[in-house]
Structure formats: C-alpha cells, structure tokens
Design a protein that fits this description.
Length: 317
C-alpha cells in the first residue's frame, strides 16, 4: 500500500487488519444470533436443555481470540516502533505551538508559519508548547503527537508524494482551537533546496534596519514586525483590517484613545508606544473595555529588537 508518507501505509495496514477482524466477527456473531433465534425458538424446543460444557469448544474460543489479539498487538507494536525510531539522517525542524498558531524553525534559524519539506527525506519535528496542551496532527501522514508545556516531544515522517497537506491541532486548546491550522508543503528535493536558500537569504534582510527615503536609517524594520505578528500567532486574535476576532483590531490602534479596565477601574489611555509595549508584555494590566484578557504575556518571548519591530509595524496600521 502507498500513501502520502511512509507512516501512512504502516498505520493503514494495522487499522485495516483490526477493522477487518472486527467486521468479520460482527457479521459472524450477528448471523449466529439471528440463526439461533429461529433454531432454538420456544415453538420448536418446548423443553430447555442443560449443557454441561465442551472442552474442545472452550479451548477453541480461548485460543483463537488470544492469537488474534496478540497479532493485533504485534502489528500495532511494529508500527509504533517504526514511528518512534527517527532515522539518523533526518532533518530537524522545531515546532512551537501556542494559542493559536504553529511556528516552524529550521536548523539555521529560519522561521515560517508553513512547514516546507523535501519528499523522500525523513523529517524530525521537535515539539514544544508555550501555553497549554496542543496536538500536532497531519491526517494525511497519519501522525499525531501532543505538544505539552514543559515536556519536549517529537515525531517524524517521510513524505513520499509532493503536495499540500493539512496541519491541525487535535487537542481542544481554547476559543480559536478550530482555526489553529497550517500546511505542510512537500516539495521535490531540488525545489525545496531553492526555496530554503531563498528564504534563508531573505531572513537577514528582513531583520536589517530599513533605509528611509531621506537616506537615514530607521531604527527598526516594520517588515520584520509584520512577519513576527504572523509567526507568533498574534493574527489569530487581532485583525489588521478593523474587524474583531477575539481581541481588538490593530487597525488605527496607534495614537487612538482607549477605554481600558485596569485593576477593576475604568480609565482612558493614549495608545502610544509605551502603551503598545505594556499591552504586549503585560496584556492583563490594561484590558480594553468590552474584551476579556485571553492573551498570554509575551515577556521573555521577544527580544528587544523584535518588540521594537512589532511596534513599528503596528504604528503604520
Ligand atoms: Cu491547539
């Protein structure tokens, strides 16, 4: 059997084996049940008979199910072993789960929100979660593993067919759980290599200070801020077009007057740089009226430079 990944056929054959046995016994037992209803009907058997056991029958219905269950275990174990043993030549990608986004980081530090992989090469994913339990799931590859805060977990796969495959979160993790989606793009080796080279080359450029029209260097780059806002999952809750998802929109935020609730008291604050910085690092301090604070603190998650880039980006919206 083939499939989108090397695990697909392994998992599917175990599934079909177990489902096949289940189906066989479902049909057999249902048939016997109906057959016995007619055969041993009271009209034909007025007097019930006692049965005093049959050693042969008991041995048969003990030995056969035991063998079947052990076979299920054996094939299940083989599949499990295959999926837990990462090949030595696997390419490693770090996966960071947070409410509510996936972020992928390659060995050279390149970060993306879509997982690009070459086909016919094993890929190891090292999972970590920054907040609650999530579950990384690629249905087409038949792989799933929990991302648990404080406990590093992993899984691996080898895509065997090029294409786009869905990535889901399979552990209910709060309001936007159902939207915690991404994609795996399995590319031919050559294509993957050129994508990787190009994306890696663009990375430092994105992080470099931008030059303004007057030729002076702006301290930070808003393109980097835009990228971070996407990568760090901010866009799961904050739109940039004025619509409300979970939190207030970024649009027109900078420079506006905000009605916030702080320590149970309402007050008005000016959305200046200091406010943006406070709201990112300590989201619970001043919560915009009408909203609930669901945002995890970004303290320790962003470097000073990254924070500045995000603020720079927000100022322009
Ligand atoms: Cu999740």
């Amino acid at each position: 059997m083939s499939g989108a990944s090397t695990s697909t056929s392994t998992v599917d054959s175990v599934f079909l084996f177990i489902a096949g046995i289940g189906l066989f016994f479902l049909v057999l037992i249902t048939f016997l049940m109906i057959y016995f209803i007619f055969k041993y009907n009271k009209k034909r058997h007025q007097k019930p008979e006692d049965i005093h056991g049959s050693t042969l029958l008991e041995v048969v219905w003990t030995v056969i199910p035991t063998i079947l269950v052990l076979l299920m275990f054996y094939f299940g174990w083989k599949g499990f072993e295959f999926m837990r043993k990462v090949p030595d030549d696997a390419m490693t990608v770090k996966v960071t789960a947070r409410m509510w986004s996936w972020m992928f980081e390659y060995e050279n530090g390149l970060q993306t929100d879509t997982l690009y992989v070459p086909v016919n090469r094993p890929v190891k994913l090292e999972l970590q979660s920054l907040d609650v339990i999530h579950s990384f799931f690629i249905p087409a590859f038949r792989i799933k593993e929990d991302a648990v805060p404080g406990i590093p977990t992993y899984l691996w796969f080898e895509a065997t067919e090029t294409g786009d495959y869905d990535v889901l979160c399979a552990e209910y993790c709060g309001l936007r759980h159902a939207y915690m989606l991404s994609k795996v793009k399995a590319l031919p080796e050559e294509e993957f290599r050129s994508w990787f080279a190009l994306a890696s080359e663009e990375m430092p450029k994105l992080n470099a200070p931008e030059t303004t029209s007057e030729g002076t260097e702006a301290p930070v780059n808003s393109a980097m801020g835009e990228r971070l806002v996407r990568l760090r999952g901010c866009v799961a809750c904050h739109s940039s077009d004025g619509s409300t998802i979970i939190g207030p929109s970024f649009k027109g935020l900078f420079g506006s007057t905000r009605r916030v609730v702080s320590d149970g008291e309402e007050k008005e604050v000016m959305a200046d740089e200091a406010y943006l910085r406070r709201s990112i690092l300590k989201p619970g301090l001043e919560v915009v009226k009408g909203f609930k604070n669901l945002m995890p603190s970004q303290e320790g998650q962003l470097t000073e430079e990254e924070l500045a880039a995000i603020i720079q980006y927000l100022k322009g919206l």
